[in-house]
Amino acid sequence: MGLSIQIDFLLATLMVSSTPILLAAIGEMVTERSGVLNLGVEGMMIVGAICGFAIAVETGSPFLGFVFAAIGGALLSLVFGFLTQYLLSNQVATGLALTLFGLGLSSLMGQGYIGVKPPSTGQINIPVLSDLPYLGRILFSHDLMVYFSLVLVASVWAFLKYTRAGLILRAVGESHDAAHALGYNVIFVRLSAIAFGGACAGLGGAYLSLVRVPQWTEGMTAGAGWIALAIVVFASWRAGRVLLGAYLFGGITVLQLNLQAAGVAIPVELLSMSPYLITILVLVIISSDRNRAALSAPASLGRAFHASH
Amino acid sequence: MSAGSLLAVEGLRKAYPGVVANNNVTFSVGVGEVHALLGENGAGKSTLVKMVYGLVKPDAGHMTFDGNAYTPGSPHEARSTGIAMVFQHFSLFEALNVAENVALGMEEPPPMRELAGRIREVSENYGLPLDPGRLVGDLSAGERQRVEIIRCLLQDPKLLIMDEPTSVLTPQEVDILFETLRKLQSEGTSILYISHKLEEIRSLCDGATILRLGEVVGSCDPREKTARELAEMMVGTELKTPSAADHDLGDVALSLKGLSVKSANPFGTSLKDVTLEIRQGEVLGIGGVAGNGQDELLGALSGELLAKADTVVLNGQPIGDLGPNARRAIGLLAAPEERLGHAAAPDMSLIENAVLTGQVRKNMVHRGLIDWAKARAFAEEVIAEFDVRTPGAGNAARALSGGNLQKFVIGREILQKPDVLVVNQPTWGVDASAAAAIRQSILDLAAEGAAILVISQDLDELMEISGRFAALNEGRLSEPRSAQGLTIDEIGLMLGGAHGMEVAHIHEEANA
Amino acid sequence: MIRLEKRPTPSRGWSYLAPLVAVLATMVAGGILFAFLGNDPLVTIRTIFWDPLFGPLASYFRGQLLIKAGPLILIAVGLSMGFRAGIWNIGAEGQYIMGAIFGAAMGLAFYPMEARWLIFPLMIIAGAFGGFLWAMIPGILKTRFNTNEILVSLLLVYVAEQILASMALGLLRNPEGSGFPGSRNLRQYESTANNELIAGWGMHWGVVAAFIAVIFAYILLTRHIMGFNIRLAGASPRAAKFAGVNPNRLILFCLGLSGALAGLAGMFEVAGPAGQISIDFNVGYGFTAIIVAFLGRLHPVGILLAGLLMALTYIGGEAAQATLGLPAAAIQAFQGMLLFFLLALDVLTNFRVRIGREGHA
Asked: Which of A85, A98, A247, C192 could form a disulfide linkage to C186, CB 3.0–4.6 angstroms apart?
């Protein structure tokens, strides 16, 4: 019976536990819409996690922590950007390198921060709304980043749908040759998208280390970056569905953690692997419709661009 | 017609490593003039217009536009100056709709809703009907060109550059396009018209500049020259036209019976109920505007796209469900359109590219191991027999010029002595002498008794080499007809006629 | 302004030079990194790259070199096949774990029977099969449902880690281990032990397997039609289809092969250097092997050399950790950096760098 009592708590933690993946996934979606496949999300997240953590601890300001996490993620992503856009390196290999490097770099940076407690990120209190019975607790008593991530998703959606810059970004992702022929600066557009993706991944990582956990441990992202990548595919590169995917995944995570805590008679290992298994299952379902998958993916995704003249 | 010059180009030069694309190019386009840039493939026409459109910076020389010095740093500058361009390989985005595509090519597009209205209006006026909400990927090649043209017209350009615009149009559609261009001309718009099709230029243009190997070799009023004279200026030497030896046709070598195949590409054209027969010693030409199922037809014959076994029959044997190598083993060979990346692997050597299709018939593989000596010998045989200019068989395919690589690709199949050979666009983007050599080798192969299916968008080529002619239109194949005595109008109708295009009706309805 | 110009033919010289220059550049950048961490860069570089081979303790370290290089080479050779064909198995770590579990389970099933001639070969087969099976999951999902093999193979690493934990705590736990997690020690059981073949050399059956894999891969790639098809599919997928290559079969072959080799590596490791199934059995060889594969230019001989070099950074890193207090993570960052430099320098194989303005107008 312990479970039923916790439903509202469960729903409230759902938003918190989804936020890191939501941030990383929405950023990666923008990167991929510009035609770039950056597999380094995991690396950028974990570097963001330690950057944010270190700065927040040193300055005592979680806000500054998040700012620097975004900067750290973006800087790291620009290494990827430089290699893939200027030196035309293979995007898959470079993304992997970014993840491997990010994992090493973050543990190096985090040497002195193991076991340290970060300053707490305050929850905001919205008058009236937060006091609503039930809903107030689920929806309106979180920290600012939860709401920021929602605003971000809405802004990305509007940006892609209604702005000229968004149209250009989509055009570059569809056909870099045609975009180049019309005079658009393909490399600049892509670098911007890569940096945005990096910043978002950094924010997602910092949310893990500053709010969700909150402490620093090596390798703490534990595959969240890869799940963010999977959610982009699940979402068919659409902002609204990224939100859906991230919350669905967050829900599963929260549920399995609660089941573990409640001591349900399912092996702990099976519960722990369930988010990954379910992610794979969802990927299978989404990609099995080949035609739809081919139509919704940006046509230039993962292809290198080099102006031949 | 021309009152003062609008665009003047003087001493333009552009060099790439190992090749001078343009050298000391000088010409001018008058206000309201339709000026032709004439030259064969590789003469430097494209580089030249890319410099005018701001995509490529010249190494030397200068331009003036409307009396002012003109040094475009980007296409944006070119567009704001009043220059618009219709690309040969369209600068369109398949997954975006017509209005979005148009907006991307404009400097200051109005809001989408207003833009959609203007697209409707302008496309109606010029007889190029278009629905602004449709995805470009779902449009035919001719409709896509309309998108490009409308995009230009919405900006009221002073100079409109058109790069080989008729290669995707049926003869009827060409006539209508020319009407539209004449209308524009009468409104004072200048047009720079790039082509290698002589009759078109003679019927449309007021002046012509002829390029050969990157340099201007002459300028003239094309209406005062014969097509032959223009061709000789363009090519520099007199051309041999391929000749077919007389020979009798044998039994039916290949037949397609109600072949239907779904395209592998989401925006591709599926084949619908294609039926044909081709005899030993026969060359059957298949014409059609780009994107009407040519790639799919080649794929269904090469074995890359599988169909029901009995819809493809080779020498009486059903083979529709066999893969490429099984078909090669029994004598059906193919040469696809795209040289780099389909017919050949760009980064691999010619020896490796010889293995690509030659492994079966040339017996290059024993117990899974490749006999590289045999592969090299075959590659060198192709190089020698087909006059492929390359330092050696060990060179990467991408290092060869288009003409030389095409000779290698065609030669590789012909030297395997096919019973049936299928080629798609055998001379696309190839210089005139290589094209003549390739056409001759196709005719020679037919004379030896092979059945040959030539898919091409170049109608002149098809009329030159094929005995019978059929047309692909939206994945359907017309009844083949004897090529002799077919008129351009008849061919045009076989290709699908005007596809809903109408004559422009901007000034007076009388013209319509 | 610096511009890149595509070479008509890839430069042979640069394809050999790039890895060497990348190693040198990484040493310089690594030196700067170490200096930031408060270590003398020259001393650190010497401790990592020189001392294990030629220093006073070299005799101990040299044995370690093959122990570390063996699994890296074995896994990387398998991965390189797929990478060449554009099939990205990045879950070798998971296949390595599954190979170890299958191999160990097979061996322990016979405990305490004494029949090495039967049990050890069965373990080898089981290990390879475990890795093969785990790699077939992304393979079949890719060929049947068009599912991205990169994501699936990677996500399966986390699943494999959970299975490993479950095995160490449950099924395979040593019944005489007084409740501690971890299986029986396979090295102390005559029939399953994968011990050194020559004392002090670090040469165990896994290293032998790695060398054999290098030779077979070399023949496959240069002489066999399958190797040709792999290279063709990577260079130009459409041309490969035209040449009659069946993409699905190629996917299954490449994933199956790399999975089986990774599984073998895991089995040899668990029966040898590691000794038992434990929660922290896997130490990231499956990921480091990705670096090894690229550093070796996806070429078997190159991978052999790259595997040895990467093993050296592990050993040297441990030495530097012990003597200089260099954090363990520094080596991981160092390895990642190496891959970056290599990918960056790769550009020189296919492009010429021109300095100067595009136009002279």
From this structure: C192
